[in-house]
Specification:
Elements: H1 25-32, H2 37-45, H3 53-58, E1 60-66, E2 69-74, H4 89-108, E3 112-121, E4 132-140, E5 145-153, E6 159-169
Antiparallel strand pairs: 1-2, 2-4, 3-6, 4-5, 5-6
Helix pairs in contact: 2-4
Length: about 180
């Protein structure tokens, strides 16, 4: 392609806009405080509590809430792709980190934070991958540290990313379910 044939990469025809709205997280956290972890996750899934800002930014939603297991879903879109037309790896990382942390919440009801997150990318994802699902499962719930495993699958059910993570459990006694 010659310079004369190269399109203006900054032209209005190639410009995309995306507006993201979210609820302030502080009041949502306060509203969830009296709930058990699984109740709060179900309230988010069912729309009684707004999802966290990161979920709105990326565009994923909580689809399944079971004790020790969460499934997030994402309709992939161009705004998550890199310049070679594949979803950025951080998309899967955010999905898995959220799903695995929320899975812990369904059992512990106390706050946890990620200590480590290991991802193995097995196949690329793109806006053409169909509905992407990210499943987080608790492997071992501990008082100070918990372990999880996660899977991202494309719209055909093919495994695209496998993950393991360790979470640090933060203060407070676990709430009754």
């Amino acid at each position: 392609m010659t310079a004369a044939e190269t399109p203006d990469l900054h032209s209005p025809e190639l410009t995309r806009t995306r507006v993201v709205e979210w609820q302030a997280p502080g009041p949502v956290a306060s509203a969830a405080m009296p709930m058990s972890g699984i109740e709060a996750m179900r309230a988010i899934r069912d729309g009684h509590l707004p999802p966290p800002p990161m979920a709105k930014l990326i565009g994923f939603r909580m689809a399944v809430v079971d004790e020790g297991r969460i499934v997030m879903e994402l309709e992939p879109h161009e705004s998550l792709e890199n310049t070679i037309g594949l979803l950025h790896g951080a998309t899967a990382a955010a999905l898995l980190d959220t799903a695995m942390g929320c899975a812990i919440s369904t059992m512990a009801g106390q706050t946890s934070v990620t200590l480590d997150l290991k991802l193995t990318y097995l196949r690329p994802l793109s806006a053409r991958s169909g509905t992407i699902s990210a499943e987080g499962k608790v492997i071992k719930l501990g008082r100070q540290t918990s372990y999880t495993e996660g899977f991202v699958r494309d719209g055909k059910g093919n495994l695209a990313v496998h993950a393991t993570a360790t979470f640090s459990m933060l203060g407070g006694e676990p709430k009754a379910k």
